[in-house]
């Protein structure tokens, strides 16, 4: 999938108002990102200790970035107020490869990991499905670690609805209705979708290579944050102590990464776009962050439709509706 071939692909579908999408090997991608995706896939050279965070949009990316950053850098600063999350939006701290691989900032980031006080490991994010990751990352010899976060499909579709209406809407375009958002979601025509195939690929890989791929769920992070942050830290090779000091460190990481804290930071309040993706306002990543908030937006029919699809799509896996 070289970038020239990608450019020549005819658009196959339209997303939201009029965003062109292409389907490649079963997954959908926004036309505007095809060049960046192709470059990431063909040029990216993993380092042995890279940490690659993965997610379909709106399933917990921002939280995962903040948690991993806070875990890895918890001993960097003595002062509470000096962590890098105070100074940079999480998406500028840890860039999304498929969106901004070709920018100078990302190329610099890849060379020097300039956003952190230590030089290693590199810490990156992608929304690509597992089967579309650069071959060098997927190969048996690759030792970089992947952390995936998944979320309840109904809360995901509601979160997407808010987000895409914000970034692809305008004062003159009416919002896309929830009904058509659900339609698109169930048909699989969402960026990096279909949703279920994306989730199942990472789930299966986490079972095949548990030492290299960690699969987390937004809901379990909400229900038992201390337990799963400990799990995450151990996977990253930075376990917390099991004593009171360890407990205090876990609490600090959770507080630093919390939605309530991040959404109140000046750096995240702005409606200004991200430097790496100017169409996306910095504030657009922070909303309610609840489990089950879909009940306020989906009709019983919409919810039932998604539940049926979830059961059908997950029936051959040991993931189930109860997992979310
Ligand atoms: P992205 O994939 O475009 O980066 P992502 O961060 O995955 O977006 O999703 C945003 C969701 O995570 C929002 O959920 P909501 O629409 O249901 O409210 C957002 O509120 C939530 N979120 C962002 N930061 C955090 C956090 N620190 N803790 C918990 N949830 C968060």
UniProtKB/TrEMBL annotation:
GO molecular function: sulfotransferase activity
Recorded family membership: Belongs to the sulfotransferase 1 family.
Positions of the Sulfotransferase domain: 49-317
EC id: 2.8.2.-
Claim: Acyltransferase is one of the keywords in the record: no
Sequence intervals crossing the membrane: none
Protein's UniProt name: Sulfotransferase
Organism name: Linum trigynum
Coiled-coil ranges (or none): none
Record's signal peptide: none
UniProt keyword Cell wall biogenesis/degradation present: no
């Amino acid at each position: 999938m070289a970038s020239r071939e990608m450019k020549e692909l005819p658009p196959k579908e339209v997303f939201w108002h009029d965003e062109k999408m292409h389907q490649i090997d079963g997954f959908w991608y926004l036309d505007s990102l095809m060049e960046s995706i192709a470059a990431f896939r063909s040029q990216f050279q993993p380092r042995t200790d890279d940490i690659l965070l993965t997610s379909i949009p709106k399933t917990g990316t921002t939280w995962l970035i903040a948690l991993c950053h806070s875990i890895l850098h918890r001993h960097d600063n003595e002062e509470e107020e000096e962590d890098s999350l105070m100074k940079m939006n999480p998406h500028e701290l840890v860039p999304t490869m498929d969106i901004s691989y070709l920018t100078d900032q990302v190329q610099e980031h890849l060379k020097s990991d300039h956003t952190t006080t230590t030089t290693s490991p590199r810490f990156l994010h992608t929304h690509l499905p597992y089967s579309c990751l650069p071959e060098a990352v997927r190969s048996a010899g690759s030792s970089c670690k992947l952390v995936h976060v998944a979320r309840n499909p109904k809360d995901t579709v509601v979160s997407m609805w808010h987000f895409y209406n914000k970034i692809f809407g305008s004062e003159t375009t009416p919002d896309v209705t929830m009904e058509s958002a659900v339609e698109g979601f169930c048909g699989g025509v969402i960026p990096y979708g279909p949703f279920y195939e994306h989730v199942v690929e990472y789930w299966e890989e986490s079972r095949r290579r548990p030492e290299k791929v960690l699969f987390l769920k937004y809901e379990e992070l909400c229900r038992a944050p201390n337990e799963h942050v400990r799990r995450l830290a151990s996977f990253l090779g930075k376990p917390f102590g099991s004593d009171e000091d360890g407990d205090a460190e876990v609490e600090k990481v959770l507080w630093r990464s919390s939605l309530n804290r991040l959404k109140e930071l000046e750096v995240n309040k702005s409606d200004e776009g991200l430097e790496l993706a100017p169409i996306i306002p910095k504030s657009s990543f922070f909303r309610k962050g609840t489990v089950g908030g879909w009940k306020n937006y989906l009709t019983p029919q919409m919810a039932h439709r998604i539940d049926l699809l979830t059961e059908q799509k997950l029936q051959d896996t040991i993931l189930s509706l109860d997992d979310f």
